[in-house]
Amino acid sequence: MREHRFGAVASGVAASALGAFAAATGMCAVFGPARTVSIGWLLPLSGLYLHVDRVGGFFLALTGSVTVPVGIYAIGYARRERLGAVPLAVLPLFVVAMVLVPAAGSVTTFLLGWESMAIASLVLVFTEYRRPEARSAGVFYAVMTQLGFAAILIGLLVAATSVPGGNRFEAWAGVGQGTRAVVFVLTVAGFGSKAGLVPLHAWLPRAHPEAPSPVSALMSAAMVNLGIYGIIRFDLVLLGPGPRWWGLVLVIAGGGTAVYGVLQASVASDLKRLLAYSTTENMGLITLALGAATLLNDADAAGAATVAAAAAVLHLIAHAAFKCLGFLGAGSVLAGTGLRDLDRLGGLARRMPVTTAVFGVAALGASGLPLGAGFVSEWLLVQSLIHTGIGKDPVVALAAPLAVGAVALTAGLGVAAMVKAFGIGFLARPRSQQAADAREAPGSMLAGMGIGAGVCVVLGVAPLVVGPVVRRVVAQLPAARRDFAGLGWTVRLPGLAGSVAPGAIALAIVLVIAVLAVGLWWRARRRQPVSENAPLWACGADQPDARMQYTATSFAEPLQRVFDDVLRPDSDIEITHLAESRYLVDKVAYRARITDTVEQRLYRPVVQMVRTAASVVARAHTGSVHLYLAYGTAGVLIVLVVSR
Predict the structure, then answer these.
(1) What distance in Å separates the CA atoms of residue 426 and residue 633, rounded to the nearest whole number?
(2) Which run of H or of E encompasses 588?
């Protein structure tokens, strides 16, 4: 018992300390000169080469800032959930690997950090390997991450071998145009897989729910951001800004990912799976913003391109804050009830008031409404797509309205998904005994969530706090050709009409709530006492119970009907008749199961083809040594002929 407590404290403190160091180092690089460290003896042939500029420093600081509250939270979570020695030891190593990725200054160092991050996260996903769901998610994640790594490896090697000294990123300025196009396609596929872009997202809603909640928070709020980092670093900074078709690819991929992710989130009943699909949605919005910046820059809409780039950078910060808080809140619910199913939750506001409050802050940020952490960044994205000067370029004139529609649909469905998660999961009456017996999280878990909630509130009310960071990072992006200095108390667009004051909106909302509260209090004081009490008429149901409430499934049913062609739910009706007569019905059971359409239509046929090919190849393995020697001889002859 004492050893486990010491292990939990040591793991959490080590992770938080590493995060604080990474955040400080990253901020020094954002506001100071680039930092370079070279250790030649550490790796064979190439050595370890670190180079942190503004972009790398930003992602370094973002990763470290997420790790600090997660490490504090992990202390109480590990002690309450009895995490084993392996995940406690691997958690700080996972942080080190994530930190190494944006700090890398060479191809070999980057690949080392990237693969170390993948292996460490895979071990953490397998924490509960005894459960079939965890094993299945781990295998799926392993396959997808290695396929993505293969695409990244090929893309980086193609670029590195095309110029002298290409192992160092500084030499990439000489990469030819044809090579750049090949590298762009390969790296967008590889990094898009890590970021969860559709159709390469299928691992994300599987792995995130099955990992321990602190790991889920790190994966969703830090690791997937490094997929976006790869696109920014290699495709937009080193090889960019790129032609317009690069921007169109990113806009289409981002818009489709955002809409599909929020659709799946709006109908999900598993709380952590809902948050995982919300991550897919927000990565899509960020990718769309980067694509819009590239496209608008090519169309000479410099102001709108700068606003789109600023929207992407600010949304990276906001998403890291509210998604980290969301998964920490979901972990608190899981630790307190043992449940993730929204249909069986409810009534947590009384039993877990602090967790309810902080999850409400996270849900508000994810919904993109005023006072939420994601409001200003989504507003900037919409403004960049509106102020495009559509008469100048027919491609922009067609793409911008479609992108605005995708963002608007995503925002509306995002509100529905978060209302469902918060309203069904935390309010009303408990729908199971586990929810009725819920316990509030211990102090360290509440402290970690409190830090995340405070950051979300600051971003929603006063985004000017991160204004200098956003300004310096945006200035490093080739697609942003104007200075973005308008992130103050009033957010202003550079060279464009439009502004918003989130602080004034917050003050107005607080004043309205205060006036309503005073009015209700005054009315209650002046109300005449009732001479006798009578039961409230409730349509014959004067004792409402949990079965009379909306569940997550019933709440999402109208949306499921509207988007039936996209979601394609698997519905089944089972009618049981009475034994005495087939004309009389005893009971009717209705079951609806919504799966990932892309996974069902794309991945399952591919998996089946691989299994069929493997079974055919297996027939050639008869156990005969002579036959294997013949195979080897034939292979050598083929190689010699081709070489000749």
Answers:
(1) 67
(2) strand 585-593
Least confident of 204-218, 301-315, 472-486, 541-555: 541-555
- Residue 72's contacts (CB-CB under 8 Å, 6 or more residues apart) are 12, 16, 444, 447, 448, 451
**In the prediction, which pLDDT does 321 show?**
94
Angstrom CA distances, 46 to 111, 154, 218, 470, 560, stand at 12, 18, 30, 34, 54
Q: What is the DSSP pairing of strand 585-593 with strand 48-52? A: unpaired
Average pLDDT over every residue of 25-38: 89
Backbone angles phi, psi at 513, to 5 degrees: -65, -40
| Distance from chain centroid for Cα 247 | 21
Radius of gyration (Cα) for the chain, nearest Å?
A: 27
Residue 49's SS3 state is strand
Whether residue 619 has pLDDT greater than 80: no
Give per-residue pLDDT as tens, 437-464. Answer: 888 888 889 999 999 999 999 998 888 8
Q: Where are the alpha helices (DSSP H) in 268-352?
A: 271-298, 302-337, 348-351
Please state, in angstroms and rounded to a whole number, the distance separating the CA atoms of residues 239 and 478: 10
In the predicted structure, residue 376 carries a pLDDT above the cut 60: yes
Q: What is the average per-residue pLDDT within 185-196?
A: 92
- Smallest Cα–Cα separation from 4: which of 81, 116, 69? 81
Contact 453, 373 (CB under 8 A): no
What distance in Å separates the CA atoms of residue 291 and residue 271, rounded to the nearest whole number? 30
Q: What is the pLDDT of residue 250?
A: 94
Q: Where are the beta strands (DSSP E) in 139-212?
A: none
Element containing residue 246 per DSSP (H, E): helix 244-267
Secondary structure (DSSP) of 334-397 = HHHHS--BGGG---HHHHSHHHHHHHHHHHHHHHT-TTSTTHHHHHHHHHHHHSS-TTS-HHHH
Q: Max CA-CA distance within the chain?
A: 106
Whole-number mean pLDDT of the chain?
A: 86
Secondary structure percentages of the chain, helix, strand, coil, to 5: 70, 5, 25
Helix (H) or strand (E) run with residue 230 in it = helix 224-230
d(CA 148, CA 143) in angstroms, rounded, equals: 9
Residue 528 pLDDT more than 70? no
Task: Assess contact for 431 and 546: CB atoms under 8 A.
Answer: yes
How confident is the model at residue 529, as a pLDDT? 63
In 3D, which of 128, 76, 88 has the Cα closest to residue 440? 76
